[in-house]
Amino acid sequence: MEVDGLRRAYDAVLAEVDAGGFGPPPPDRYSAEQIVAHLIASDELMREATEAVLAGSPYAFYDLDEVHRPELDELAAECGGLDGLATRLRATSDRLVALVAKLGAAADTPVETHLREGFELVIDEPLPWGRTIDLHARVHLPRHLNELRALRRRP
């Protein structure tokens, strides 16, 4: 698990969000606001899990691949749209990266993990928490980065 890689993955997503110019999503896909809201919600769960690992408490981590759109829309409205969501994502990602930097040997702590990234990645077993963080940086964040790029309006 590499903290710098996690930060770089977030920086790429945030740069894409800052670039703006997103069009409407295809049917049954998230809008740019919903993607960022999903990442904020994921960050909060990952923060809770990381804090539990650091405290030596048991924890089960469930990804938020199936968060309901009304919940994401509510978070987007609460943040005031995409700019507010970007500000919030900066804060949640900064907190998560800072906590991950403190893990050290605790990164090997097994955490009951339930992840689904489309059809390509399905995990339903204990994983070292550092491995879950690594999957977040190498699979989850890039997946949503690609979704944001696909939403960019074409001239």
Q: Please tell me what the overall shape is.
A: globular
* Helix fraction by DSSP (H/I, runs of at least 4): 55-70%
Across the major sheet, the strand order is 1-2-3
DSSP strand (E) fraction?
A: 5-15%
Question: Tell me about the biggest sheet?
Answer: 3 strands, mixed
The succession of helices and strands, N to C, reads: HHEHHEEH
Count of DSSP H/I helices: 5
User: What is the structural class?
Assistant: alpha+beta
| Integer-rounded radius of gyration | 15 Å
| Number of DSSP strand runs | 3
**CA(first)-CA(last) distance:** 39 Å
Flag low-confidence runs.
none
On the 0 to 100 scale, the average pLDDT is 89
Chart the SSEs and their pairings.
Blueprint: H1 3-19, H2 32-55, E1 60-62, H3 69-79, H4 82-101, E2 110-117, E3 121-128, H5 129-151
Parallel strand pairs: 1-2
Antiparallel strand pairs: 2-3
Helix pairs in contact: 1-4, 1-5, 2-3, 2-4, 2-5
Q: Can you describe this structure?
A:
The chain has 155 residues and is an alpha+beta fold. Helix content is 61%, strand content 12%. Strands 1-2-3 form a three-stranded mixed β-sheet, covered by helices on one side. It starts with a helix and ends with a helix. The mean pLDDT is 89.
